[in-house]
Specification:
The protein is an alpha+beta fold. It has a single domain, classed as Alpha-Beta Plaits (2-Layer Sandwich), CATH 3.30.70.100. The chain is 26% helix and 37% strand. It is built from 3 helices and 4 strands; from the N terminus they run E-H-E-E-H-H-E. It has a 4-stranded antiparallel beta sheet with strand order 2-3-1-4. Strand 2 and strand 3 form a beta hairpin. The radius of gyration is 15 Å and the shape is globular. The two termini are 21 Å apart.
């Protein structure tokens, strides 16, 4: 199975700001070419949101993380974020048996 490169960010946000955060969450220009998929998951109370993105390489992800566009995106999210954690991982899909 093909190895994947994954960037995960988890943000605890101010109560009642999920809608505003989602509005500024997306990049303001085309997505990076090396980004394959991206997902957002949020807690039932709307106070924690986790983003999961899949990249071609670690270098492509690092390039985006240190880009001016990502700095602007993080600045736009800052008023809503209480705490942020992130990590970069390598892995592969687990085969789940069909029932």
């Amino acid at each position: 199975m093909r190895e994947q490169f994954v960037w995960v960010t988890t943000r605890r946000i101010k109560p009642g700001t999920l809608e505003e955060l989602e509005r500024v969450w997306r990049p303001d220009h085309p997505y990076p070419e090396e980004l394959r998929q991206a997902y957002a998951y949020w807690s039932e109370d709307g106070q924690e949101i986790t983003g999961v993105s899949f990249w071609d390489t670690k270098e492509a992800c690092d390039s985006w993380r240190h880009s001016e566009a990502e700095a602007r995106r993080r600045e736009a999210m800052a008023p809503y974020v209480v705490e942020e954690r992130e990590g970069f991982y390598r892995g592969r899909e687990l085969a789940v048996p069909v029932r």
